[in-house]
Amino acid sequence: TDIVSIEHVSIPSMAKLFYFHGVGMINQFTKNWDNIQNFKARPDDILTATYPKAGTTWVSYILDLLYFAHMGPDRQTSIPLHDRVPFLEICKPPLPLHLTSKLPTTPRLIKTHLPVQFVPKSFWEQRCRVVYVARNAKDNAVSYFHFERMDSGMPEPGKWSTFLQNFMEGKMVFGSWYDHVNGWWEKKQTYSGFHFMFYEDLIEDCGREIDRLCSFLSLSPSPEEKERVKASVTFDNMKQNKMTNYSTFDSMNQTISPFMRKGKVGDWKNHFTVAQNEQFDEDYKQKMKNPDLKFRYEI
Ligand code: PPS
């Protein structure tokens, strides 16, 4: 692979990582903190939570289509997905918090990357339903690396080897992958309105995962509706679709790396050296001791 020659190409960025209540963050996700914490959820809000690059856009689009495809083609062709499913904690104009509270739909679909302890308490008080999407750490790290290369709102990732070390040490925006996934997995044990999904399952059988999601949400789309959702959310269609491929988002330079980059399980094999992989596995065992939480690294 040609990773060595491209790994230094990153879009310049002013974003600096700092620790916020013990979690790596950047200013655009903390500067509106009090308003975010005071966000008033409604009982029918649906929160999609993920560590960055775990499949947020994919699941957001599935949810949006399941609930709102019937509203007609205009919504699908004129409103970018990130305005239909706003990002709770992002803070750049137009303020999604503003957008979120003004969302005209019921339910409101809301996206967050916050670790579980940072979620505004109103979501729990209102017993909102939560969909968490998790992706295996190796592919998640690779995808995050390329995202930091192309998005000027994020810190510059440095070389792949540096980035991977930082990932293992949790020196990342939204903190440690290990803490994020473990924290949300624990929440699932005590909170009933919770659906835990895996990126790898979606890749393996998207139709089955749509069925499971529908059963969690008590939705019963017709077979035709389900087929239409399934066809719209393929990687190729989402990559072509200007409303889902983030081409309307100005902080991203998609010539450095497209937002819809590869959409595969196992691309980590093109990035990890044998030594990096061994070190990663060793470290992983120390951090991920819960035998119930298992990930797949290939399909
Ligand atoms: S973000 O910025 O955190 O919201 O990114 P997120 O959407 O969570 O993750 C982006 C990765 O998901 C892949 N993706 C998909 N894969 C398969 N099928 C579909 N439909 C799909 N939609 C998005 C996207 O390509 C990113 O992964 P990588 O590995 O970088 O390609």
Automatic annotation (TrEMBL):
It is found in: Cytoplasm. The keyword Coiled coil does not apply. Residues 43-290 form the Sulfotransferase domain. One of its GO terms (biological process) is catecholamine metabolic process. GO terms for molecular function: sulfotransferase activity. Keywords: Catecholamine metabolism, Cytoplasm, Transferase. Its EC number is 2.8.2.-. Signal peptide: none annotated. The keyword Cytoplasm applies. GO terms for cellular component: cytoplasm. Coiled coil: none annotated. Transmembrane segments: none annotated. It holds the Pfam family Sulfotransfer_1. Belongs to the sulfotransferase 1 family. This is Sulfotransferase. It comes from Haplochromis burtoni (Burton's mouthbrooder). The lineage of its organism: Eukaryota, Metazoa, Chordata, Craniata, Vertebrata.
